[in-house]
Amino acid sequence: xxxxxxxxxxxxxxxxxxxxxxxxxxxxxxxxxxxxxxxxxxxxxxxxxxxxxxxxxxxxxxxxxxxxxxxxxxxxxxxxxxxxxxxxxxxxxxxxxxxxxxxxxxxxxxxxxxxxxxxxxxxxxxxxxxxxxxxxxxxxxxxxxxxxxxxxxxxxxxxxxxxxxxxxxxxxxxxxxxxxxxxxxxxxxxxxxxxxxxxxxxxxxxxxxxxxxxxxxxxxxxxxxxxxxxxxxxxxxxxxxxxxxxxxxxx
Length: 251
Fold this sequence. Notes:
The protein is mostly beta strands. It has one domain: 4-Layer Sandwich (Double-stranded beta-helix). The protein has 4 helices and 15 strands. Strands 1, 2, 3, 4, 5, 6, 8 and 11 form an 8-stranded antiparallel sheet that branches. Strands 7, 9, 10, 12, 13, 14 and 15 form a 7-stranded antiparallel sheet that branches. Strand 1 and strand 2 form a beta hairpin. The protein is globular.
């Protein structure tokens, strides 16, 4: 048995969102400041630059998190890495091509798991609503451990290399929640829902998209002369039926 004081009832640390076993807590002010950085901290809070943390309330459940993201764990909580002799090379290869960490630890049991604070915004998505969701590199923070993780690749490798884009991305399928670190708050994100259509995005501004979409990197217009005149180079193209979640400003 355990008891936590000055946490759930802390007025400076508010719960601003919850899905499943995940809760988002936001520090309203940075109270641990000196006279030298008080002005910066004050205006940062006014502009919504705040520390945010994810709490996982484990109730005989399990959560997989980004390596190094754990701040503290309380109660009967155990951790495994999921890396074994038989899957070490596969996980190492997946980590190398996606830019994600090889070992994403899984915490399970009965208790609380708090993740490290971040100034980025926290987004929670229901994976079942996407069928298969593909994530932009570096945004994964945590998910329900029962979700299946795979590495997906785009079709035209050559254009992806020319465009400076990654060739592979982490995708998730199953019933559960995924938690992302977003460059913008959820109320600024734009959602495109396609029905046998396409969208072209200049830059890596999509943070997640449906695995059912064909994802390629192409020239913005047909022909090198047209591209030179339009001053548009290579763009990310998503075709088919599915959804894209896009940040309106660059990361």
